[in-house]
Specification:
Helices cover 43% and strands 0% of the residues. The chain is an all-alpha fold. α4 (49-58) packs across α5 (65-75).
Length: 127
């Protein structure tokens, strides 16, 4: 009917919005999506839901990140946590080490002891 009559008139007669003529749902089945998520997680075991969503997008899957997170939780495909220890202090430096003058001291009122550490800054200047 849409070819013979104006689309506006047909939609009004049927009581549907005009946008429904143009919209084509491309909703993937849950089993296909689960298989695609499982494939990505098997290939990249350290990926979380954000990276898995991005990888699915590169593989032509248009899916919301919240949906990916929900399916990953249901399937038990949480990312393996990689714990990296960050070294913030270089203890093997050749510079002198000064004693801690505050250690063992009891502080009873505000502004009795002030402490600062500029070791990192000084090491950067000398290097």
């Amino acid at each position: 009917m849409a070819n013979e009559y104006p689309k506006v008139a047909v939609c009004q007669a049927l009581g549907v919005p005009r946008s429904s003529l143009y919209y084509r749902s491309q909703r993937e089945t849950a089993s296909e999506l689960k298989r695609a998520i499982s494939d990505v997680c098997a290939e990249f075991p350290c990926y979380g839901y954000r990276r898995v969503t991005a990888e699915l997008g590169r593989r032509a899957w248009h899916v919301n990140r919240k949906r990916v997170a929900r399916w990953m939780a249901k399937l038990g495909l949480q990312a393996k946590k990689v714990v990296r220890k960050r070294r913030t202090t270089n203890s093997q430096h050749p510079f002198p080490r000064y004693p801690n003058l505050v250690e063992g001291r009891h502080v009873f009122q505000p502004d009795e002891v002030w402490v600062a550490d500029i070791t990192y800054y000084l090491n950067k200047l000398k290097m």
